[in-house]
Amino acid sequence: MMRKGYLVALNRALPNVRFMGGACWVAWFCVMYGCEISFFGVQLSSGAANHIYIVVNAAQMAVFFAVAVWHERFYRLVYNDRFVVASGVLASVGTVLTFALFSLAEGYWYLLGAIFSGIGMGIIPCRMILQFAELDAKDCLIVAAAVQIVGNMVSYTVLSIFVLVRPWAFALLPSIAAFLLLVDLTEEQDKLAVFSVCEWRLPAWFWRLAVSMLFFVIPSGVCRSCFPVFTGEAYLVDFRRLTGILNIVLMAIAILAVAGLSRRHNFGLIVYRALLVSSVICITLSLIGPASGITLGIVGSVNAVINLCVWVLLSCIAFRTGASTLRVFGMGYGAFSLGNIISWGVGEAVSVFDLSLNAVTTMIVIASIAMLVAALFLLRGSDIERIMDYAMPDVDKDADFSERVPPMGDDRKGRSGWRAKCEIVSSQAQLTARERDIFMLLVRGDSARSISDELSISYNTARNHIQRVYAKAGVHSKEELQAMTREIEL
Q1: Are 41 and 141 in contact (CB under 8 A)?
Q2: Secondary structure, 3-state, 426-466
Q3: What is the pTM of this model?
Q4: How far apart are the first and last CA of the chain?
Q5: Are 104 and 186 in contact (CB under 8 A)?
């Protein structure tokens, strides 16, 4: 109870702090990829960092696909606070173990720590996506961009603080991320109430989207993985800083641009155009070649934009369609992780087989063209627009919603009589203000999907509210709720 009190206080002081767990997740990858940190006096080489990055992504991919297959079981695990904390601790221990084994054992034993880190860092985004799936398109874009900004700032903070402190700060990032994700005041039984009203079905076009995500990440990944081979590690650090600055600027611009738009705006068109522009930029930069530092800086920012688009798309699919959030994320981001593995595997092959710069440039051009083709024909702009085109009105959530609800057609006493009956049942069931809104729409005959549209809330949130209304009213269906309301005598 004391722990819960601390979380409540933290949530009141910083209402959106739970999303900052994602920033620590981003920061961990930024620092690990950069080879800029030493632990126990050990600093990883770029080759070792490549191996770790591939193994971490492979472990994450295994977690994501497992979550997608056994999504119903994983809902209970991911919503369990202790399980999330244990995952963060596992990733922190894996981080320390990676450096320890790198210095103490010969061979590739240090990759054992990378496996532990990858498993733990795979559970953390699964908890994150459940929070993002409760946001509409506009809020999701703004929050996801803010997470990228804070993540880059945290990574620089970790790299710049006192030399004896920063290794431990780096190792603790996964655990801090797990703790921040706990700042969610919804009770676990309320979160899991969604099971009794879930559909779980994925849209038919989702598989095209999942395959497209694999192609999106490969061009930028190949360029980033090949850069150290042709330029050396010294330049890598400098141009990664350029990437961080560009990321912060781009995400700040995105926030300012989106914040000024109405919720009725078709954000799907923005995301689709961002993906198309990213593919064209990758083709252009590939002609410059991965030996250019400017290329690495810009490609890193392109990769951040693609990550943002993919994250928002997966969140909006879960928000809009009512499909299992974990299944959507597991399949979608699992494919994205597979693309990361392939692209960094190419970088490893370039080093092992000593491929020429021209050969690498050709591969990047081919991968960029494949990305453009996937965005134009496989993904389809109509799919994204359908996902994110809510056409929802800008409603005042603090207004008296009951005044806007029309009466039941068979209520002879008209609107005032029907509303009075609803008020009586709502009071007897001790419903909250939001639950009263849900109650009225249910009595009116609305479905969970139409309720989510009417109130500008996610499909999963609507289902959770519906289940709580049923439980408090002592009924099991909308029909029983309507019958109970009709039987009330005024």
Answers
A1: no
A2: HHHHCCCHHHHHHHHHHHHCCCHHHHHHHHCCCHHHHHHHH
A3: 0.78
A4: 43
A5: no
**Beta-ladder partners of 42:** 39
CB within 8 Å of 244: residues ≥ 6 apart:
30, 152, 155, 156, 300
Q: How far apart are CA 17 and CA 12, in angstroms?
A: 9
> Which bin fits 489, alpha (ψ -120 to 50), beta or left (φ > 0)?
beta
pLDDT for the residue numbered 91: 95
Phi, psi of 199, rounded to the nearest 5 degrees: -105, -40
Whole-number Å distance between alpha carbons of 97 and 171: 10
Q: Is 91 within 8 Å of 116 (Cβ atoms)?
A: yes
> Which stretches within 289-324 are classed as H helix?
293-321
Residue type, position 216, single letter: F
Q: How far apart are CA 96 and CA 112, in angstroms?
A: 11
Beta-bridge partner residues of 38: 43
Give the bridge partners for 43, in sequence order: 38
* Residue 64 one-letter amino acid: F
CB under 8 A, 24+ apart: contacts of 76-80: 76/192, 77/123, 78/123, 78/126, 78/127, 78/130, 78/326, 79/127, 79/130, 79/188, 79/191, 79/192, 80/188
Residues 6+ apart with CB under 8 A from 112: 97, 101
Share of the chain above pLDDT 70, in %: 79
- How large is the greatest C-alpha to C-alpha distance in the chain, in angstroms? 85
pLDDT digits (tens, 9 = 90+) for 227-275: 666 665 555 666 777 788 889 999 999 999 998 888 777 788 888 888 8
Cα–Cα–Cα angle for 15, 20, 24, nearest 5°? 160
Structure tokens at 95: 């981080």
Locate all alpha helices (DSSP H) within 322-391, ordered by sequence: 325-353, 357-373, 381-388
Per the structure block, which two tokens stand in for 399?
């207004």
Q: Do residues 164 and 61 make contact, with C-beta atoms less than 8 angstroms apart? A: no
**Residue type for position 171:** A
Strand partners, 39: 42
Angle between helices 21-34 and 233-259 (to 10 degrees): 160
Q: Could you read off the pLDDT of 292-322 as tens digits, one per residue?
A: 667 777 888 888 899 998 998 888 887 776 6
CB count within 10 Å of CB 132 equals: 25
CB 151 within 8 A of CB 300: no
Say how far apart CA 228 and CA 223 lie, in whole Å: 10
pLDDT tens digits, 332-376: 999 999 988 988 888 788 777 777 777 777 877 788 788 778 877
111 has which bridge partners? none
